[in-house]
């Protein structure tokens, strides 16, 4: 089977790439499993100072793979693994991000994107809700902005994503944006990085402890609903859903 992720290392930084461009890097059960394994290995490797999560193709992540979606518990496990990892995780985005992919960004400690990137919470348009991904998103992102984009599914650009806290920074050249970030991480003591990350993620992990079970149940219920079946079918058939007025 073709690998769904790519991995490389440079000066203590592990680069993990979503590498399923044919599916726009949609989060299938297999891709979620591969990412969870990769980050688990990075967490145990003393030679890894930090991890960069990036992608191939023009889409960072299109959200859940509607033909082979991950179990909500598996997605929760992946997001928590990113948050709990004792190494900083940096997202590098040069393409579009939709739905579940935005949960990946929020679970990273630092996230940067090029100005060509675009973002949207498209869940409501296929009859579901951004349930599980809210675990890292709600503690880290502007609540008024989330209300708008969660409820409407509108697209927004990288500048707006940075303004609302979804991104750390946006720029014409994302690698130029990240160069001082990676330099700073390489100059930092590993133990100090781990403890500093622990301080920064405490509120996010509180949300996981408090809400993960309820949001997992909500996700499972919505994905099995009649509206979700209609919304997903309409999406795959490239037509408007029956509720459009």
UniProtKB/TrEMBL annotation:
<dbReference type="InterPro" id="IPR029045">
    <property type="entry name" value="ClpP/crotonase-like_dom_sf"/>
</dbReference>
<comment type="similarity">
    <text>Belongs to the enoyl-CoA hydratase/isomerase family.</text>
</comment>
<dbReference type="InterPro" id="IPR051683">
    <property type="entry name" value="Enoyl-CoA_Hydratase/Isomerase"/>
</dbReference>
<protein>
    <submittedName>
        <fullName>Enoyl-CoA hydratase family protein</fullName>
    </submittedName>
</protein>
<dbReference type="InterPro" id="IPR001753">
    <property type="entry name" value="Enoyl-CoA_hydra/iso"/>
</dbReference>
<dbReference type="Pfam" id="PF00378">
    <property type="entry name" value="ECH_1"/>
</dbReference>
<dbReference type="InterPro" id="IPR014748">
    <property type="entry name" value="Enoyl-CoA_hydra_C"/>
</dbReference>
């Amino acid at each position: 089977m073709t690998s769904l992720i790519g991995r490389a290392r440079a000066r203590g930084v592990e680069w993990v790439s979503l590498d399923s461009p044919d599916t726009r890097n949609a989060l299938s059960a297999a891709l979620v499993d591969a990412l969870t394994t990769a980050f688990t290995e990075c967490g145990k490797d003393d030679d890894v100072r930090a991890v960069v999560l990036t992608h191939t193709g023009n889409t960072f992540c299109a959200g859940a793979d509607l033909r082979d979606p991950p179990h909500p518990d598996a997605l929760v496990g992946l997001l928590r693994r990113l948050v709990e990892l004792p190494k900083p995780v940096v997202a590098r985005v040069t393409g579009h991000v939709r739905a579940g992919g935005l949960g990946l960004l929020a679970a990273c400690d630092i996230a940067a994107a090029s100005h060509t990137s675009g973002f949207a919470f498209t869940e409501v348009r296929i009859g579901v809700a951004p349930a599980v991904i809210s675990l890292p998103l709600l503690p880290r992102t502007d609540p008024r902005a989330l209300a708008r984009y969660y409820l409407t599914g509108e697209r927004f650009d990288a500048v707006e994503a940075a303004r609302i806290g979804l991104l750390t920074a946006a720029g014409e050249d994302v690698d130029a944006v990240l160069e001082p970030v990676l330099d700073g991480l390489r100059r930092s003591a590993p133990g100090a990085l781990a403890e500093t990350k622990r301080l920064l993620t405490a509120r996010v992990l509180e949300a996981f402890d408090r809400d993960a079970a309820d949001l997992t149940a909500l996700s499972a219920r919505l994905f099995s609903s009649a509206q979700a079946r209609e919304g997903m079918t309409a999406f795959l058939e490239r037509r408007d859903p029956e509720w459009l007025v």
